[in-house]
Amino acid sequence: MLAGQSQKELFVNEAFALLDALVHPVVESEAASPPARPRDGECWIVSSQAAGEWAAKSGQVAYFETGQWAFAQPVEGLAVYDRAARQFAFFDGAWLRAPQVSEPAGGSTVDVEARDAIGKIVTALRTSGILPQV
């Protein structure tokens, strides 16, 4: 802010809204158009098929604040938690998510200890949000 700057509170409030959306971001999901009744503070990833009010905003994080949508262009390395998918999404030029991984089953030789260890690793990755919940 500058001394004598008009409407300083608007710039400060806009900065706080952006911080709120991006410091520990949680998105509802990924969508092509805004939800019918968004709540203040709601964030979404704008999908590649963006339309309507979100047209030309593909890949950006849309956040709803004080009755209007604002958008933030993600930078490489940004991670957001996707509530609907129950996992993290990472931005690396595009939004990336870990694929669903099946726990080991079957095989000609069953190694109980190895299967147990791999199962615990898969559980830990799901719990941490790296892999989606089943």
UniProtKB/TrEMBL annotation:
Its domain of life?
Answer: Bacteria
This protein is called what?
DUF2793 domain-containing protein
Originating organism: Qipengyuania atrilutea
